[in-house]
Design a protein that fits this description.
The chain is an alpha/beta fold. Helices cover 33% and strands 26% of the residues. It has 2 domains: 2-121 and 276-293, Rossmann fold, CATH 3.40.50.720; 123-273 and 306-316, Dihydrodipicolinate Reductase, domain 2, CATH 3.30.360.10. It has 9 helices and 14 strands. The chain is globular, with a radius of gyration of 20 Å.
């Protein structure tokens, strides 16, 4: 499938390097607001064409699937542009700045009858199904508590301090939130949150509490102030599961309920393209089958996450400059 990249920044470079040899992906064109930057990107990763503006890429009749990796506050307008040009879209997380934006583009995708999906790689990884099988098999009993943390020393990055779409919640906190939602069959019933804000008004550190049905709880911690372990846990009444990384796990360990707990099962995961390949392979397959959304991350789930993010920000006093 012929792929077009909107944005030639660091995330685009990381993605292009990861999937450049992935079967089924043909690097057709890339676009940046500066033609020389797009040309450099084209040469570095083997794209056939480079454009100095996004409109030229959107008017390219050959490109079949567009990947958006620009900063968060641009996603809404770029998704709309792509959809209005009847282009299939895989948009990097976080999907939009808020649920109002995400709802509008989702409705537009359905109206245009075009494929749209969020590129949050963890949702597509095979570890997800493996963990579901572990829980269904009863190894840890009934899950009752999820704990997940993520943090990197990235507070000096420009995107993190952006008063529209910046902050650690949208950049990093989406991962532990998705960790809870995709590993649990329960529904979120109540949310509370507390944040430390930067002088620019974005969230630097968040602590989030989720109440779920059937008396299940989740505790989430995210920060852009320091590098932390980024580990995830699922606690059951007969043991627990430990993920070596909540974002891109390569090892999952199951512990029994002894004192001290002992490892009774270990799963390891190796990826051909660092874990990025699964979202691309699914998107290509779905488009070829004339399907309009992801199986692993359906649009209803993307919208649910955006609404949860909105409520967390409301409870923690996080407000963007473009919001009333």
């Amino acid at each position: 499938m012929k792929i077009g990249f909107i944005g030639c920044g660091k995330m685009a470079a990381k993605m292009a390097e990861s999937i450049k040899d992935l079967e089924g992906c043909e690097f057709d064109c890339c676009a940046a607001r500066d033609l020389s930057r797009a040309n450099d990107f084209k040469k570095a990763y083997g794209f056939k064409k480079a454009y100095g503006n996004y409109d030229d890429l959107l008017n390219d009749k050959e490109v079949e699937l567009i990947y958006i990796s620009t900063v968060t506050k641009t996603h809404y307008e770029l998704i709309k542009l792509c959809l209005k040009h009847n282009k299939n879209v895989l948009c990097e997380k976080p999907f939009c700045v808020n649920s109002i934006e995400s709802k509008e583009v989702i409705e537009l995708a359905k109206k245009q009858n075009v494929y749209l999906a969020e590129a949050i790689w963890t949702r597509y990884m095979p570890v997800r199904e493996s963990v579901k099988e572990l829980i269904a098999g009863g190894l840890i009993g009934k899950p009752y508590l999820y704990i997940a943390s993520i943090g990197y020393a990235i507070d000096t990055k420009e995107r993190m301090q952006d008063p529209i779409g910046g902050g650690v919640l949208l950049d990093c906190g989406v991962y532990p939130i998705n960790f809870v939602l995709m590993n649990s069959n329960e529904k979120v019933t109540n949310i509370d949150a507390n944040a430390i804000l930067t002088p620019s008004g974005v969230d630097e550190t968040d602590i989030i509490w989720l109440n779920l049905t059937n008396n299940v709880r989740a505790v989430i911690y995210c920060t852009m102030k320091s590098n932390i372990d980024c580990i995830g846990y699922i606690y059951g009444d007969n043991g627990f599961i430990k993920f070596d990384h909540v974002n891109h796990p390569t090892k999952v360990e199951v512990y029994n309920n002894e004192r001290p707990p002992k490892v009774i099962k270990t799963l390891t995961f190796k990826h051909k393209c660092g874990g990025y390949e699964y979202q691309w392979l699914e998107a290509i397959k779905q488009i070829e089958l004339n399907k309009k959304e992801s199986i692993s991350m359906p649009l209803s789930e993307t919208q649910k996450v955006m609404e949860i993010l909105d409520e967390i920000r409301s409870k923690a006093g996080i407000k963007f400059n473009n919001e009333k």
